[in-house]
């Protein structure tokens, strides 16, 4: 016991100087200027006895010592061509910033510096800044700086980061020198070449099971995710052929991966398939035969031949005892990807430089859905750029660029060119081309799984871009002027809905399942023909900016940009819009091949949309340091940005219109009876065209502004407070003219209906405040905390409908045609006469979001045991741990109920009415209260606001562990382990918000569970 006490006392005595130094350590900082202008790169050395610390001023002339013990220190400041400064400072608990003004050396000393020493062949200006000019030796190299080894001087402070190449701290004699593999530290010609190999591994054995919404575990499929790559770079040198070739960089990356997903659904039981609904859950107690008005005997419903054939595609239930889902399977999606990248640059003479790149990407993916349909998608993309830079003189530079990109997408659904499922089931009226074979889409409003499959497509899109700009650098002004021209081609081969869509909502019998069994849908829609489309668009812009360094403490970057995207045209003029009279009293198709309205006599352009050339975008940014030698920085900015890509989505619909193709959207009625066998026949009461675009459609734009204040805090901390604002104008709005609520009388029986009309009257507004607290790298620890409080509102059909598909009951996500840009489908407004009722929270409105990032590297700084050596140092030092977490409030969701808008064939989702009950539910497993909503009274629209439900809160925690192992040669080995969802915490992404669905208030999906990924790289 006495020996242990003695050892403890001895340890305390030995460690007391070290502990005392840190207990009494203080921060000391200041600024170095010349003529009032900050000077970067000044070497500042603090000495006290045998202890020496060295730092270099940053671009603002600021220097900082983090841990100086209290007492008197000698401060030395040295910078080439300036007289050295030496002074004493007293370090206390409260230090006053030190400000130093440099003075130039006398003319004779400056002249001596400019004269090479005898026998010297090097540039004297490259002499190390660490040596005072009067002490320089007349040699061709900078004299070595004596730096004690770590074991000889335990107080030597280590560098926490790299400094800019070319400074004194990149000299070979500096303890802060960059590694020999970087920049100007290459020892010989062999170092001009570099390369590496990489391997990323992820196996199902390392990952957790996918989350089960049903609460019943399913077997986890076995899979592997492997990514591998190789890189090589250096000058091209072929003996006797190419002596001074360009510098090349080559890279290849391949991946073979699979993703496991657990799908849960509600499917018809064996009894329900046979029409026996006596014991079926969720069905009416009495089911009436629509033909006779009498109950079916023993609740035994006759099953139509078409329904019986389509039911064969549904799997049988494999779960029991669960009231929400009765079927669950794990599915495995596969993806193979190969990427090739090349870069090259070559200097031509003293004034010209050529550089460019070429990238090629090939992806082969197989997606499996709930029905085990496998849809294959092959994507082949390439892009290249050639750049030329020319220097006229020291102040004027010219740049020119040509860019080319091409993307080919081929989608092959399960039944394409294999089986005509719709025709074999007795469903008439679908496209009979083999490429578009497959089943019709079936949608149910009660929660039954929708039958869906991807659409066949073969799209080839291309962009040619030309740009030219000039940079003028004169005095305090850095001026840039330029212009761009892009020619865009969208060569599409697809049809929007060639197999058709049926929707069942129980309008006939009170049960959507019974309606399906007897073969009577509530609505039907189909769109096919005119499969090949060749869309063209030209985009222009011109701009000019001035980066004006008005004062050392004030910079203004101001300019303007004009951007114009011409409305899209079709190469063979196969576009159809509607010529509309005032108040939508009459409509008639107008074709791009004959662009004259038969009703109004209006002459339209070939695009059928009038151009909008008002894309002027002023922009300004300001950076201001109000207090000299202070870290306080104020930044502000304002700009306008136009969306020139807004035309693609509506023009694709204009290309799928009668009379050039078949487009039907009808509702079951006495005047237009629908069946599964004959549901895609146009009725005389419906319009032949289902979409129209306002010919005066305006391009939307956003005004953005921000104000931020940045200030450094003690303990290597920095705080930034920011205000952000965005105002959107001319957003997309889509509505149904001449529509009216369920149960109301038609106010205009002679007026046309059944088509959607898209205009540009939407608006949006987003306000956000951010506070960021960042700890700079010190002692191996770096951290960042960012909190955002924001609110966004809009009445925009695309912006507000982000992440949602319009007419979700009739437009299945798999039925939309795939395109290179995947244009969003607008959400149709509920009441076309009251578009202001659409104004609500935006779909992306997240009120609170907290992001925290941490990074710690062992063996950094004295507190991190930088002096650790031996086997312990080799094992424990230089490990980097990273952690990132996001915690946020839920995203808004809209309550809805499925109903067909009378006379249109469009199925909701309409909004229900509020009952006054609380929205949240106390029922276990159900997060929303079904009693909070009700179907609106006949003849009225629902009053529940759009996006008035708060979705599930968001949480994620990811981490990584990495280290670089160095060898005595030129090889480096990197190892990294990444963990996604480290805590294996199940966070739901959204709720089911369909009123009347058996799944209302239940989670729709969950985030991915824990996944581990190992990465290995060998570099040389």
Could you name the CATH topology of the domain at 22-169?
A: Immunoglobulin-like
Shape: globular
Q: What is the structural class?
A: mainly beta
CATH-derived architecture of the domain at 22-169: Sandwich
Q: What ranges have pLDDT less than 50 throughout 5 or more consecutive residues?
A: 1-24, 116-190, 801-822
User: Mean of residue pLDDT?
Assistant: 83
| Residue share in helix | under 10%
Total DSSP helices: 8
Please give the largest β-sheet. Answer: 22 strands, antiparallel, barrel
Number of strands: 45
Please tell me about this protein's structure.
The chain is 6% helix and 42% strand. The chain is mainly beta and 1020 residues long. Among the domains are: 22-169, Immunoglobulin-like (Sandwich), CATH 2.60.40; 871-888 and 952-1020, no CATH class. The strands form 8 sheets. It has a 22-stranded antiparallel beta barrel. Strands 1, 2, 5 and 8 form a 4-stranded mixed β-sheet that branches. A 4-stranded antiparallel β-sheet has the order 4-3-6-7, with no helix packed on it. It is globular, with a radius of gyration of 35 Å. It starts with a helix and ends with a strand.
């Amino acid at each position: 016991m006495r020996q242990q006490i003695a050892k403890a006392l001895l340890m305390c005595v030995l460690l007391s100087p070290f502990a005392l130094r840190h207990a009494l350590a203080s921060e000391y900082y200041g600024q170095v200027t010349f003529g009032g202008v900050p000077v970067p790169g000044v070497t500042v050395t603090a000495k006290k006895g045998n202890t020496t610390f060295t730092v270099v001023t940053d671009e603002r002339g600021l220097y900082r010592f983090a841990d100086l013990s209290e007492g008197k220190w000698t401060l030395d400041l040295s910078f080439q061509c300036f007289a050295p400064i030496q002074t004493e400072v007293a370090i206390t608990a409260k230090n006053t910033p030190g400000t130093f003004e440099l003075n130039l050396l006398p003319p004779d000393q400056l002249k001596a510096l400019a004269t090479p020493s005898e026998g010297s062949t090097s540039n004297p200006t490259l002499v190390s800044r660490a040596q005072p000019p009067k002490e320089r030796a007349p040699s061709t190299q900078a004299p070595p700086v004596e730096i004690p080894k770590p074991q000889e001087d335990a107080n030597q402070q280590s560098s926490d980061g790299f400094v800019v190449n070319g400074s004194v701290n990149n000299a070979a004699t500096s303890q802060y020198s960059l590694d020999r593999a970087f920049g100007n530290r290459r020892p010989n010609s062999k170092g001009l070449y570099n390369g590496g190999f990489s391997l990323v591994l992820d196996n199902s054995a390392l990952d957790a099971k996918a989350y089960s919404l049903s609460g019943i575990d399913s077997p986890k499929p076995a899979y592997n995710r492997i990514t591998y790559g190789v890189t090589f770079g250096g000058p091209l040198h072929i003996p006797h052929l190419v002596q001074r070739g360009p510098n090349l960089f080559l890279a290849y990356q391949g991946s073979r991966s699979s993703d496991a997903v657990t799908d849960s659904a509600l499917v018809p039981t064996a009894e329900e398939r046979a029409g026996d609904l006596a014991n079926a859950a969720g069905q009416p107690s009495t089911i009436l035969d629509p033909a006779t008005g009498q109950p079916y005997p023993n609740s035994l419903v006759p099953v139509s031949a078409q329904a019986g054939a389509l039911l064969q595609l549904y799997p049988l239930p494999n779960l029991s005892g669960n009231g929400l889902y009765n079927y669950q399977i794990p599915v495995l999606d596969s993806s193979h990807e190969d990427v090739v990248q090349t870069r090259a640059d070559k200097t031509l003479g003293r004034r010209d430089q050529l550089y460019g790149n070429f990238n090629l990407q090939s992806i082969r993916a197989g997606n499996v859905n709930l029905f085990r349909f496998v849809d294959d998608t092959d994507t082949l993309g390439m892009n290249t750029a050639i750049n030329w830079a020319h220097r006229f003189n020291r102040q004027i530079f010219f740049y020119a660029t040509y860019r080319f990109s091409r993307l080919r997408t081929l989608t092959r659904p399960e039944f394409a060119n294999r089986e005509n499922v719709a025709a074999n089931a007795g469903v008439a009226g679908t496209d009979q081309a083999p490429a578009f074979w497959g089943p019709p889409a079936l949608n149910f409003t009660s929660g039954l799984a929708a039958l869906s499959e991807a659409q066949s497509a073969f799209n080839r899109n291309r962009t040619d871009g030309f740009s030219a700009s000039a940079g003028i650098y004169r005095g305090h002004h850095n001026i840039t002027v330029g212009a761009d021209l892009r020619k865009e081609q969208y060569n599409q081969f697809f049809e929007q809905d060639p197999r058709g869509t049926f929707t069942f909502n129980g309008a006939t019998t009170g049960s959507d399942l019974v309606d399906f069994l007897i073969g009577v849908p509530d609505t039907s829609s189909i769109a096919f023909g005119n499969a090949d489309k060749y869309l063209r668009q030209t985009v222009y812009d011109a701009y000019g900016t001035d980066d004006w360094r008005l004062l050392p403490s004030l910079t203004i970057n101001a300019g303007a940009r004009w951007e114009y995207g011409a409305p899209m045209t079709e190469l063979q003029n196969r576009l159809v819009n509607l010529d509309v009279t005032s108040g939508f009293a009459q409509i008639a198709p107008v074709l791009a091949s004959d662009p004259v309205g038969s009703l109004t006599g209006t002459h339209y352009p070939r695009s059928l949309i009038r151009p909008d050339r008002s894309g002027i975008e002023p922009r300004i940014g300001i950076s201001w340091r109000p207090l000299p030698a202070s870290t306080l920085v104020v930044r502000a900015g304002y700009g306008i940005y136009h969306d020139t890509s807004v035309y693609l989505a509506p023009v694709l619909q204009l290309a799928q219109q009668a009379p050039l193709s078949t487009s039907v959207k009808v509702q079951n009625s006495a005047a237009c009876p629908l069946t599964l066998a004959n549901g895609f026949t146009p009725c005389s009461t419906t319009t032949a065209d289902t979409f129209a675009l306002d010919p005066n459609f305006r391009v939307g734009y956003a005004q953005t502004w921000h104000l931020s204040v940045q200030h450094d805090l003690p303990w290597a901390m920095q705080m930034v407070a920011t205000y952000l604002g965005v105002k959107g104008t001319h957003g997309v709005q889509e509505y149904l003219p001449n529509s009216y609520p369920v149960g109301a009388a038609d106010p205009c029986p002679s007026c046309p209906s059944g088509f959607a009309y898209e205009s540009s009257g939407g608006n949006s507004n987003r306000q956000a405040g951010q506070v960021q607290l960042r700890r700079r790298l010190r002692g191996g620890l770096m951290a960042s905390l960012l909190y955002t409080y924001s609110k966004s509102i809009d009445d925009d059909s695309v912006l507000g409908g982000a992440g949602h598909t319009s007419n979700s009951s009739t437009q299945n996500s798999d039925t939309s045609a795939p395109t290179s840009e995947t244009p969003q489908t607008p959400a149709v407004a509920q009441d076309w006469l009251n578009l202001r009722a659409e104004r609500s929270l935006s779909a992306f409105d997240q009120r609170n979001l907290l992001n925290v990032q941490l990074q710690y590297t062992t063996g950094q700084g004295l507190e991190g045991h930088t002096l650790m050596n031996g086997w312990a140092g080799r094992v424990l030092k230089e490990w980097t741990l990273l952690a990132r977490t996001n915690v946020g409030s839920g995203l808004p969701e809209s309550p809805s109920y499925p109903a067909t808008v009378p006379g249109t064939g469009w199925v909701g989702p309409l909004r229900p009415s509020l009952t006054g009950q609380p929205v949240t539910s106390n029922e276990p497993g159900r997060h929303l209260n079904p009693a909070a909503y009700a179907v609106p009274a006949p003849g009225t629209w629902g009053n529940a606001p759009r996006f008035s439900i708060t979705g599930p809160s968001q949480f994620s925690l990811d981490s990584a562990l990495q280290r670089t192992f160095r060898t005595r040669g030129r090889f480096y080995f990197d190892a990294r382990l990444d963990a996604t969802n480290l805590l294996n915490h199940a966070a739901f992404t959204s709720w089911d918000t369909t009123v009347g669905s058996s799944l209302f208030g239940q989670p729709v999906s969950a985030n991915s569970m824990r996944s581990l990924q190992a990465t290995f790289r060998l570099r040389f």
